[in-house]
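#structure-requests
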Amino acid sequence: MATTNSFLPHHNHLRTAQNSHRPSPAAFASFQDFKIGKDPASKRAVKLAESISHMLNHQIEKTIQKSIETSNANVSSFKEKHDTPTTSPKENISSIWREIHGSGDWDGLLDPLHPWLRREIVKYGEFAQANYDAFDFDFYSEYYGSCRYSPSRLFDKLGLTSRGYSVTKYIYAMSQIDLPQWLETSRLVNSWSSDSNWIGFVAVSDDAESDRIGRRDIVVSWRGTVAPAEWYDNMQQDLEPIGQADAKVEHGFLSIYASKCDTSRYNKSSASEQVMTEVKRLINHYNKLGQKVSLTITGHSLGGALGLLNAYEAAKNFPTLPISVVSFAAPRVGNIAFRDELYQMGVKTLRVTLKQDVVPRMPGIVFNEGLQRFDDITGTLEWVYTHVGVELKVDARSSPYLKKGLNLIGFHMLETYLHLVDGYHSSNSDFRVDSKRDVALVNKDCDMLVDELRIPPNWYQLANKGLVQNQHGRWVKPERDPEDIPSPTNESYANNISVEYSSKLL
């Protein structure tokens, strides 16, 4: 009670003080007169403020409405595509296949992007994407790092049979440097391989596709990495000689391409030797049939780097063979001399890059081909990294389906690239309204699509993450089909299949 009594007088004092400062009715009326603007100057000020306020509110409402309309339009156009084909019509490009293959360095075909070339770029990009879609990423699988399907079943399992190619050979790689995460082996002791990973494949066009594109096309597809920094921090940024002249390439890339070990189960021969043996076999086979043959090499990220090394070696061994590289998100690989040798040997390279992706800026973010303008002062710098070939640059901001903001992983994903290439018309035009590729594919392994489309992020995975119920109702990892188990015997089987396939063309 004492506390309450001591508080009351203080509270009353505050009320008295507040009342003593309350304005009189006359003063309050005077304040109101000023507020409503009886003074002419104040009236003008109030009207100006009200006008500005109305303008701002109107602009905000327009912006909100435009955002809603744009969002609704995106959702509407996305839904309209549900009942349309996901690929463009196959045009017969046999009359200009050399131009499409880069004989003129794609001059006049990139801006605007020729629709026939766009389709070919997407086709080779899908071959590169196949390396991810079929890769066993499960650390707890005894087959981690292998392909989940045999060569004869790969395209069928991935829905690529309509592309008109057949896989003839798988490629495996190892490295003699500290292995980044993408080359780690299974966490299980008894795994299919202790030192190798599936790194890509060789494929060849069938009769119908060869007629359409004007030649028998041999494709080599190289797997890359996913996260921009997943592998790069582990790479050695040292340049090392390749060939007999001044050409030099990044040490880590060359190690993966050329490493082998006598005690290795899958890399007694290097990735280089595996791919060149198969390419030579196919070239000899089709040359005997009197057919025109080309070599197209594709890859994403690190796969684009390995593709350039592959092209360099192929050009050395087959000097008259038309060779092209179609890469996505590829880093720099070698020095200026390496680039110049590729040019002199006639290798054509089309680099697809994304403006927001950081990987194509590596290595040599600062010291790169831009320093060539100082050659008169410094001379040719052998240690400077440089890009090779012609660039097709796309921009994530061009697509109305992609989220705004920073997403380093999403910017580097191959499906993001393919979405943007499919929607690209020219550098000064909007995203193609008649783009064909399924937009939902963008979110396979990232979160890039606007929420209004309601496509969940990272949706691509095996049902129940690969687990199945056995006869007792227990969830277990299933046994692989014997045909899909990687082994030397299985590889021999795959080679027999490719020989049998080739013999059918005689």
